[in-house]
Amino acid sequence: MSSPLVIAGMSGGVDSSVAAWLLQQQGYNVQGLFMSNWDEDEDGYCTAAEDFQDARSVCEQLGIPLHKVSFAGEYRERVFAYFLEEYRAGRTPNPDVLCNREIKFGVCFDYARRLGAEWVATGHYARVEHGSGGARARLLRGVDTGKDQSYFLHAMPSQALARTLFPIGSLQKTEVRRMARELTLPVFDKKDSTGICFIGERPFAEFLAQYLPAQPGAIETAEGRQVGEHRGLMYYTLGQRQGLGIGGRTDASADAWYVADKDVGRNVLVVAQGHDHPSLFRRGLSASQLTWVAGEAPAAQFRCTAKVRYRQADQDCDVRVLASGRCAVEFDEPQRAVTPGQYVVFYRGEECLGGGVIEASHGQPQPL
Fold it and tell me: Would you call 99 a catalytic residue per the annotation?
C-alpha cells in the first residue's frame, strides 16, 4: 500500500523546510510546492527568486520533487484589491488572513488536490485536531505561544482545514532551528520573513503612494484644536506614536502623541497625549464578515477570550451574534487601539473558534 501523498508548501524558510522533513519521518510521500503571489519586481525588494532557490536546495537535499506555481493574478484580484479598498476607506487591513483563506488554503489548496494530494501541509505554528465520524476539524493554537499563528488561520475554509497538516505546530521555534541545524539544511540560520508579503522590506508609504493618491489634512486633538498636518490618513493606524511630527509644542505637555481616531469624512487625524489617554481605549466593538471554524457560532451569546491584534494577550469578553454575519463584543477591560479593518479572533482555551473584521469600536472609558 502506497504512502499518502502530502503536498508541502515550501517558502524557502526554515519552518516549511523542517515541516517537510518531519512529514518524511512520519512516512508520508512528500512533494514540495513553491507558490509566488506577486509579480517579481526589479527594485531589489522582492525576495521570491532567492526564496525559490532556497526551497529548491532544501528539496534536493531531502530528495523530494518541487513544483512551482504562480497565483499572482488571483492574489491581485482576491487580496490586493481588498487591501487597497480598505486603505482607501481609511481602515487598516490585514491581508495575511485573506491570503491564507483565498490563496494558500483556497486556490493553492485546490491546485495541490489536483496534483493528487491527500493532504496539504505548511510550516505554520498551529495545530489541527482532525475529527472522526464526520466531526469537523478543530483549529488549535501552536504550542509556542510566541509564534502561534492561529490568529491568521481562523478564516481558512473548513474543507481545507480537514485536509491540512501543521507538522511544527507542537514544537518550539528553538527546536525547529535546532533540527534544521542538525540536519545541515541550507536555511537553518535564515532570517524569518516579516511584514506584508508583497511589500517586503521597502518603505510602506512609498509603496502605497504608487496606488493611492495621498490626501494631506489636519491633525487635531479630540477637542478640535489643530496641532499639525498629516500626509494622508492611509499612512497612520490607531495607537501609532512614531512619524506624527508634532512633538515639542510649547502649547502642550511633553507627553508623547498617539493616533486616537480617524475622521475620514473631514480627512482629519485625531490625536491624544499619553500612552493611556482614555480616547485610545474602547469597551467594545462590532465585527462583520464572520467565519466560524466549526461552521457556526458556539451560541447566540457566549463567553470567550479574544484578540484584536496578533501579538495581544487574550482578553475576556462576551460575544453576541447578530444578523447578517455580524457580532457585538463587550470586553471585561477596555481595549487600547481597537482598529477598524483588523480582525477580532475568538478563543476558548487552546481552541480557535473563528473571527471577523472589526467594523467599529464603542464605549470610550471616562477619565479618572
Answer: yes
